[in-house]
Amino acid sequence: LLFGRPSPITQFCGLCRVAKMTIGCVWIFAALTCATPLAGLRSVQEESVNGRPQASGFQQKQQKIQLAFVRHGHGCHNALKSQSKFQFPGWRKHKEYVDPPLTDCGRKYSSLNGAALRVKLNGIWGGEADFVGASSMLRAIETGLEMFPNATLFPLPFISEWFCPVSDIHEQAQWMKTARVRWDYVDGGSERLNTTDFRKVVDQARGTPSYHSFKWFLETYLLPDLHRQRRAARGDAAGAEEEPFRLVVVTHGFFMYHFL
């Protein structure tokens, strides 16, 4: 946990900036370049070359992304660490306390940190985020909702905490069904993931954090969707595809420490 007032950017290294926020949040800003299949906006067509059918494939184009990773706020499992009588080993804590939500303190400071972070990102980007995502775990979703009160939040795969099981507590499941949470990529998009047993995909998405898998997911699914939305909003306006996409993703300390 990091204590103190929200501070300005404290480190600069290449394309990453790290800022310390009040209680339980860290954010990392990174600029990425992905080769996204823009022609995924249309279906793959068969073309004839020397009388033989050839799949035209996807037209590759470099797309710049400005991406802010945010660690979730103070969770109930974090509060156990400050209680001397409950020094559970990590594996036991995750087993017995499944998918813990934020504490009241975590909610309060996620809201305060969100206000400070929105001002900071607006100064860097000159505008709001195009997309707000989070791990599919409850504390990350709650953090995103508190930090970005006007945004729709999309749970995403491959950015969860390590060895954290799926919650089957009814009350917790209800908290994740707010109208501001869209399960297009974890719970609502099974046709994209080529499986009929989508529950296994959810388990895997939560339990297997991987930066390389997440980057593949961005290039394969998320960026084409964002391009579609931008083109629908702007038509064929010049420069609509050259602008960088500005993304905020709420994830976990393990993912940020080991992969970023």
Task: Describe this entry's structure for a reader.
There is one protein chain. The protein contains eight helices and nine strands. The strands form two sheets. Strands 1-2-3-6-9-7-8 form a seven-stranded mixed sheet. Strands 4-5 form a two-stranded antiparallel ribbon. It is globular and about 50 Å long. Helix 3 packs across helix 4. Helix 4 (138-147) links the parallel strand 7 (131-135) and strand 8 (153-156). 35% of the residues lie in helices and 22% in strands. With 260 residues, the chain is an alpha/beta fold. The protein has one domain (11-42, 54-232, 244-259): Rossmann fold.
Brief digest:
This protein is an alpha/beta fold and 260 residues long.
Structural class: alpha/beta
Percent helix, as a range, is: 25-40%
Number of domains: 1
Largest sheet: 7 strands, mixed
Alpha-carbon Rg, integer:
20 Å
- What integer is the average pLDDT? 70
Identify the overall geometry. globular
Helix tally equals 8
The third-level CATH topology is Rossmann fold
Q: Judging by the overall fold, what is the CATH architecture?
A: 3-Layer(aba) Sandwich
Uncertain residue ranges = 1-23, 36-58, 188-197
Strand order of the largest sheet: 1-2-3-6-9-7-8
Q: For this structure, what is the CATH class? A: Alpha Beta
Number of strands: 9
Strand content: 15-25%
SSE order, as H and E? Answer: EEEEEEHHHEHEHHHEH
First-residue to last-residue Cα separation = 18 Å
